[in-house]
Amino acid sequence: MKSVFQVEGNMATGSSLTDVYTTPSPTDYPTPPSSYSSTGGYMKPAIDLAGWMEFWDYAGGASFRAFVAEDGDERSLFAFFDVGLMGRDLKKALIAFIDLAEGPLACTQVVICLDRLIPEDDVKSLMRSFQWVGFELSTLDQWAKGIDVTSDKWLFMAMEV
């Protein structure tokens, strides 16, 4: 995921979605500027991130991180479901999340990223529930632009909205 969206970081200490790093201007560098072009080595991510959010469901006691990725006219809303969501009522949060994707965010797809650390029995049950709603197992192929990407941290389930 990091190679596609630049977001798969250590969630415990913060991720690139929440970190802010200021780059000093070239005039603040202690040495003269090099002849190397700073734009020559920069690789633009394949997909633009339009925004991110922390989604809170106070009724069900669930919270998770999400972001919107844009690729031309296509917008996808990604949500990260980690081990901390197990045992919580996710029904209302999921309905609100899908409504948010369809309505104000104008997304064409919702992708749930399931933490691979979720115990096997729990993840199987959760995946069955998501399949009942309309989600299917997915990969990052659509967003990776030909890069072969497999995440060792997340399983992906996608649904067109």
Automatic annotation (TrEMBL):
GO terms for biological process: positive regulation of protein catabolic process; viral translational frameshifting. SUPFAM superfamilies: Acyl-CoA N-acyltransferases (Nat). GO terms for molecular function: ornithine decarboxylase inhibitor activity. GO terms for cellular component: cytoplasm; nucleus. Residues 16-38 are annotated as: Disordered. Pfam families: ODC_AZ. Ornithine decarboxylase (ODC) antizyme protein that negatively regulates ODC activity and intracellular polyamine biosynthesis in response to increased intracellular polyamine levels. Binds to ODC monomers, inhibiting the assembly of the functional ODC homodimer, and targets the monomers for ubiquitin-independent proteolytic destruction by the 26S proteasome. Belongs to the ODC antizyme family. Interacts with ODC and thereby sterically blocks ODC homodimerization. This is Ornithine decarboxylase antizyme.
